[in-house]
């Protein structure tokens, strides 16, 4: 019996196998598309979430801004108040240093020596000048000795003496220019003689 | 030859009929790819941009919320309640009347007399004065302006001493820049100086001229311990409560100086 060759059947077999593979591929593609669509939904959902959040935060900001603006007079008053206070604290600080120096030099030389003049108007804000008045040369000598003592040098290391004068009645005056810098930061003690 | 070419050409129709699933799979993959390229990637980038914007806006919101709370609380803060003291010590206008009144008050209280007095109140309101004031304001970086006063005060040693102390406790904030003491009547006799002390004084009185600007987001300035100490010091100041003049009183052509007209009989 002669063997029959069915060319069409062979081709049909191959085609059926290919169609089975195609069906698998189609299922995979459906799954991929569903997965991609799910990702798309997540991404678009997160985008809407952030749109909502940003809108929400901006709306809240606008609301708070309008409430802050409604308090503008209070804010203005407070800022002026705070700036004035800052200026005053600077003035008080400068004046305190000078007042401390005045009290110090009023007391350090004894009762018979008076501070007869003060000049705070130096362009250098850390310098103050005093005019010290002594009733006679002996008291003035004591003033000079006191200026070289440790109790003065430790507080005011930079003192410049100038313009010593004698009046007709025998009183002596001398000008002292005092640098009000922080004594701790001073490295050299310098009293000019 | 043309028949061979025809054989080699891809037959879409046969492919779609025989490989329908494959065609659908190719279509679905293409759709998935397009979805990724044209939808997911742009949306994802958009979402990232929104997220970064959200992160940027959140601290701003927190600042604004903090500022709002501060503004609500500040009205009742013990420091801000002393605003009038600070305004009196450093007024926002030239405090000429306040200064003169304060000086008069401490002079009376300390039993001293002012023999000589001079000050420069400033320029009258002319166009030139306005230009000069503007130029001065521009050059003034301190945010304050000064009234210089020069005076000679006489009285007992203790009274003059007390006057000098009180002088630095008046509103507007006044500080002595130069002082020269002398005994006027008894010369340099130290035993009698209590009776006839003279003090030549130059003072500076300050007033606030700084321009202030602030944005809505800017935080409110904080008050530190040093400034709280200043508030305590200001409590000891003697304040003059002069009513603000908001309108011109008197004047007019009929009664220019408020003096009763002279009558002749």
Architecture overview:
The complex is a heterodimer of chains A (193) and B (265). With 193 residues, chain A is an alpha+beta fold. Chain A has a domain at 86-191: General secretion pathway protein M, EpsM (Gyrase A, domain 2, 2-Layer Sandwich). Helix content of chain A is 60%, strand content 17%. In chain A, strands 1-2-4-3-5 form a 5-stranded mixed sheet. In chain A, a hairpin with a 5-residue loop joins β3 (158-166) and β4. Chain A starts with 6 loop residues before the first helix and ends with a strand. Chain B contains 8 helices and 4 strands, in the order αααααβαβαββα. Chain B has a 4-stranded antiparallel sheet. In chain B, α2 packs across α3 (20-74) and α5 (96-110) packs antiparallel against α7 (157-167). The longest helix of chain B is centred in the N-terminal third of the chain and has 55 residues, at 20-74. Chain B is rod-shaped, with a radius of gyration of 41 Å. Chain B starts with a helix and ends in a 31-residue tail after the last helix. The model of chain B has no long low-confidence stretch (mean pLDDT 81). At the A-B interface, α1, α2 and β1 of A face α3, α4, β3, β4 and α8 of B.
Helix and strand arrangement:
The complex is a heterodimer of chains A (193) and B (265).
Chain A: H1 7-70, H2 72-107, E1 114-119, E2 127-134, H3 137-147, H4 150-153, E3 158-166, E4 172-179, E5 190-191
Chain B: H1 2-8, H2 12-18, H3 20-74, H4 83-89, H5 96-110, E1 113-119, H6 127-139, E2 144-155, H7 157-167, E3 174-183, E4 197-208, H8 225-234
Antiparallel strand pairs in B: 1-2, 2-4, 3-4
Q: What are the defining features of this structure?
A:
heterodimer, A: 193 residues, alpha+beta, Gyrase A, domain 2, 5-stranded mixed sheet, 4 helices, rod-shaped, disordered C terminus, B: 265 residues, Alpha-Beta Plaits, 8 helices, 15% strand
Give the rounded overall mean pLDDT of chain B.
81
- How far apart the termini of chain B lie comes to 148 Å
CATH topology (level 3) name of the domain at 86-191 in chain A: Gyrase A, domain 2
Strand arrangement in the largest pleated sheet of chain A: 1-2-4-3-5
CATH fold name of the largest domain in chain B, please? Alpha-Beta Plaits
Subunit organisation of the chains: heterodimer
CATH architecture identity of the largest domain in chain B: 2-Layer Sandwich
Rg of chain B from C-alpha positions? 41 Å
Largest interface, and how many residues on either side? A-B, 70 and 79 residues
Distance between the termini of chain A: 146 Å
Query: Could you name the CATH homologous superfamily of the largest domain in chain B?
Result: Ribosomal protein S6/Translation elongation factor EF1B
Name the beta content range of chain B. Answer: 15-25%
Strand order of the largest sheet of chain B: 1-2-4-3
- Largest beta-sheet details of chain A: 5 strands, mixed
Q: Give the amount of beta strand of chain A, in percent.
A: 15-25%
Q: What is the number of independent domains of chain B?
A: 2
Low-pLDDT stretches of chain A are: 183-193
| The CATH class of the largest domain in chain B | Alpha Beta
Fraction of residues of chain A in helices? 55-70%
Total strand segments of chain A? 5
Structural class of chain A: alpha+beta
